[in-house]
Amino acid sequence: MFLKHLNIDTPVIGLSPMDDITDLPFRQLCKEMGADLLITEFIASEALNRDAEKSLRKMRFTPEQRPIGIQIFGADEDELLRCLEVVEQAEPDFIDINWGCPVRKVAGKGAGSGILQDIPKMLGITASLVKRSHLPVTVKTRIGYSADSMMITDFCEALQDTGIAALSIHGRTKTQMYSGTADWTIIGAVKNNPRMHIPIFGNGDITTAAQAVENKRRYGVDGILIGRGAIGNPWIFEQCQRAFHGEPEREISVAERVDVCQRHLLMAIDFKGERTAIFEMRKHYGAYFKGLYNFKPYRLALVSTPTAEATFEVLNNIKEHYA
User: Fold this and answer.
1) Which residues of 105-118 are buried (b: 16+ CB within 10 A; e: fewer)?
2) Nearest to 23 by CA among 59, 51, 53, 49
3) Residue 118, domain member (yes or no)
4) Among the options 101, 156, 240, 261, which is catalytic?
5) At the N or C end, where does the chain have fewer CB atoms within 10 A?
6) What is the mean predicted confidence (pLDDT) over 60-81?
7) Residue 99: partners with Cβ closer than 8 Å, 6 or more residues away
8) Which residue segment(s) compose the domain that 260 sits in?
9) pTM for this entry
């Protein structure tokens, strides 16, 4: 097993890396709620090589968050190899290569899922990183560049042969971005290839514990990574753990949602400062309180308040109103 901390005899439920989402405070909440595996936001190799403060901060984690991987991305092999020393100094449990991000500013430069148009280059860089790294190296990618291009089932064995310790697959192509539905049949085909022996993790469209259990049963993956389904909902990891152990789902009260949201904000302020935290937390509020009747006035207040004090006041009002 690539991580001594993990036991894949039971399903591994992990947090999928998301830019500007899976920072240290959010990962801490997900870990406390039952996430088995954490991965940082993706970090540009070039930024690490020039000691960019924001990128170095993205690598920070607490001992409680282990096992954790630091995810790097880039299209230049030399830059990626150079950044290994910086990453290894942070002492993560593994290094994850992002060959999956579909956004233009990344994929358009041949990094992320952009490299799926050049599989030989992808395999060559991956092999070089595995050879140079003193830590286990894993890969996160997509099922292919487009529906009419080579799918990962065609080269997954070659990717395994580079020496990677595990493979995570998002069930969409690069051109799909985040539209349509994730194709787990291709993920299952990789996992059930008898020549594959490394752990295979599936990712895409998991928003409930029931979906996690069903996809594990149907496709046999070693673990499931949850991305957008965890935004504003770190409880999804607790619900998954309960479901896999045959326990009933627990209802999350509005008061608990408020309490966790407030703690999230406090940790974000401590980690990034009030101004940045106030701004970045705005993408979480709608998800924390999804489904509440007549919530719009509170949502508008949360995304427009300029101070932590005002934000906490709105959150306290939410707790009182929906009690």
Assistant:
1) ebbeebbbbbbbbe
2) 59
3) yes
4) 101
5) C
6) 97
7) 112, 113, 115, 116, 122, 126, 139, 140, 141, 142
8) 254-321
9) 0.94
